[in-house]
Specification:
By secondary structure, this protein is an alpha/beta fold. It is built from 6 helices and 10 strands; from the N terminus they run H-E-E-H-H-H-H-E-E-E-E-E-E-E-E-H. The mean pLDDT is 88.
């Protein structure tokens, strides 16, 4: 059973896409300001540190994943669901499908906005770290030797072997990583901004249609009163 949401209902979700895109932009601004800068004499000016950079990257990813959850739903099985629960699940699936059409029918498997791996690693770090450290103890993983670092990841070597970082921001590649899960942050930003443009265009059309409907209703009311 497919449920068709009205434009008046969809506008709440589309406004949320724009809000989260703005939040992501703010986090990226914080990240950019915190990165090392080059002074007028070519010297490297002090940065605000990797804690600020990685924290801002995590905030940016969280905002993007709020958009992700609007566009795709991950519904597990329910034992003996009620009719109300079934209809609510259909509402969620229909909402996501209609929103995807608004922002260009995004392919979850190909879009950086569809990738939840790094966000999940940040959000459930304790579980991810449990598994990783367990595998280290049993010789299945390399030892973690760094955390909350930033720079050129290729330059972090230990006896010709790359250092394993718990959390890292690669300044050169603009990548954020949690252990072996990596996300190209700039590609995610570009995708969110593209989605935001389409969302704003839809909102403008909705507002225009609403205004036209209101004007038509007002005109009909005037004509009815004059005809009496």
């Amino acid at each position: 059973m497919t449920i068709t949401l009205t434009d008046q209902e969809l506008v709440y979700y589309v406004n949320e896409i724009v809000l989260q895109a703005n939040a992501m932009r703010s986090a990226i601004g914080t990240l950019s300001q915190a990165l090392p800068k080059v002074g007028p004499q070519g010297e490297t000016l002090p940065s605000q540190g990797p804690h600020v950079v990685i924290g801002a990257a995590q905030s940016a990813i969280n905002s993007a994943m709020a958009i992700n959850r609007l566009l795709w739903v991950n519904l597990g099985p329910l034992e003996e669901p009620t009719e109300v629960e079934k209809r609510k699940r259909e509402w969620r699936k229909s909402r996501a499908k209609q929103l995807r059409k608004i922002v260009g029918d995004i392919n979850q498997q190909k879009s950086p906005l569809g990738d939840r791996k790094v966000r999940n690693a940040f959000e459930h770090l304790e579980e991810y770290l449990d598994d990783y450290l367990f595998e280290i103890r049993h010789g299945q993983r390399d030892q973690v030797t760094g955390d909350m670092n930033m720079g050129d990841k290729q330059a972090f070597m230990f006896f010709d072997r790359p250092i394993v970082h718990l959390r890292f921001y690669d300044i050169r590649a603009k990548e954020v990583s949690v252990l072996d899960r990596t996300l190209k942050l700039q590609e995610l930003v570009d995708e969110v901004e593209r989605v935001e443009v389409l969302a704003k265009q839809w909102i403008s059309k909705h507002q225009r249609k609403s205004l036209e409907a209101w004007a038509a209703g007002a005109l009909n009311g005037i004509e009815e009163r004059n005809g009496r």
